[in-house]
């Protein structure tokens, strides 16, 4: 979709109520979407896998469990909402929950939203998702997109690549490794591309497109495109380290990742992530102007002392 078409969709605002549901409002992307909605005076319920969790916003956000195994209860938690902002997904299979499970869960959520009378869904997907992909992550994302399009809900599908922000795990841990070790692995030739978007830009797009009535799908990407080697070099230069970048076979990288994961008690990297990255899937190929405006290079300069100061565990954040 062109930038002019996006502008028309945003201007065509039609919120029927000012009550919305955000999945994962205590997490990363969902937190930024929730904050923008709260600033507008909206009433918010979050669906979460951690219903006992609270944050600094206290009782400003109502909390309900996902209840994927109880569609009636899930439907009740969606009743009265105008828009469902979905950020739910899993980075990797864990404790019996696979990408196929996540797809089934989201189909249940979409059906519950239809039954509850929700007007619109804003769904966060990923660039270059395809039902024909041999990567479960990208294939699952495409299957959910298909379910969104086939539903009776008005919809906006946002397809980001790497999302950067202070709470990000991937880029933070790249910086942490650059700070800790004299060598840093680059998978293959490092010429595959990355087009990162700032989490605040993604949240802005989500909220603006939530106010539309038009069905929309767009690549939610930022204004800068880097090769992976360029991006890692930029992080190293900005944080002031001299870690040497070395080419490594992706298979060997997975072995090293698993070994490091044992020491860190975490999943450092997945095969899907390496294959998606090296297959040039984390860059927009739509030919449209990027809707994100924040420069990754400028954000790095502004957050240099924070980035990579400590390791961030995916398992600690979402499972422990």
Structure, briefly:
This protein is an alpha/beta fold.
Detailed description of the structure:
This protein is α/β, with parallel strands linked by helices. The chain folds into two domains: 3-164 and 195-220, 3-Layer(aba) Sandwich (Rossmann fold); 170-193 and 224-318. It has twelve helices and 13 strands. The chain has helices spanning 3-11, 29-39, 71-78, 99-116, 136-150, 170-180, 199-210, 228-239, 250-264, 271-278, 296-302, 314-318; strands at residues 19-23, 43-48, 61-65, 83-86, 120-124, 154-160, 163-164, 183-187, 193-194, 197-198, 216-220, 226-227, 244-248. The strands form four sheets. Strands 3-2-1-4-5-6-11 form a seven-stranded parallel beta sheet, with helices on both faces. Strands 7-10 form a two-stranded parallel sheet. The chain has a two-stranded parallel ribbon with strand order 8-13. It is globular, with a radius of gyration of 19 Å. It starts with a helix and ends with a helix. The mean pLDDT is 93.
């Amino acid at each position: 979709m062109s930038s002019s078409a996006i502008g028309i969709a945003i201007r065509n605002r039609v919120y029927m109520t000012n009550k919305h549901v955000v999945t994962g409002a205590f997490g990363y992307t969902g937190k930024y979407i929730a904050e923008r909605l709260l600033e507008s005076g909206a009433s918010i319920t979050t669906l979460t896998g951690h219903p006992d969790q609270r944050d600094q916003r206290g009782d400003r956000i109502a909390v309900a469990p996902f209840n994927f195994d109880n569609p009636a209860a899930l439907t009740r938690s969606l009743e009265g909402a105008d828009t469902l902002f979905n950020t739910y997904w899993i980075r990797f299979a864990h404790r019996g929950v696979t990408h196929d499970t996540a797809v089934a869960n989201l189909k249940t959520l979409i059906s519950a939203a239809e039954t509850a009378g929700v007007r619109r869904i804003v769904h966060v997907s990923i660039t270059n998702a395809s039902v024909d992909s041999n990567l479960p992550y990208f294939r699952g994302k495409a299957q959910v997109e298909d379910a969104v399009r086939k539903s009776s809900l008005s919809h906006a599908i946002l397809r980001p690549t790497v999302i950067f922000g202070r709470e990000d795990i991937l880029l933070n841990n790249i910086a942490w490794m650059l700070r800790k070790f004299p060598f840093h692995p680059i998978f293959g030739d490092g010429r595959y591309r990355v087009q990162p978007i700032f989490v605040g830009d993604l949240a802005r797009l989500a909220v603006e497109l939530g106010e539309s009535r038009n069905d929309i799908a767009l690549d939610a990407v930022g204004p800068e495109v880097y090769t992976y080697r360029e991006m890692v070099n930029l992080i190293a230069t900005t944080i002031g380290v001299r870690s040497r970048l070395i080419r490594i076979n992706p298979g060997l990288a997975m072995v090293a990742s698993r070994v490091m994961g044992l020491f860190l008690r975490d999943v450092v990297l997945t095969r899907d992530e390496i294959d998606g990255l090296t297959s040039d899937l984390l860059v927009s190929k739509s030919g449209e102007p990027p809707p994100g405006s924040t420069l990754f290079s400028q954000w790095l300069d502004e957050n240099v002392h924070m980035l990579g100061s400590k390791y961030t565990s995916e398992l600690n954040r979402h499972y422990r």
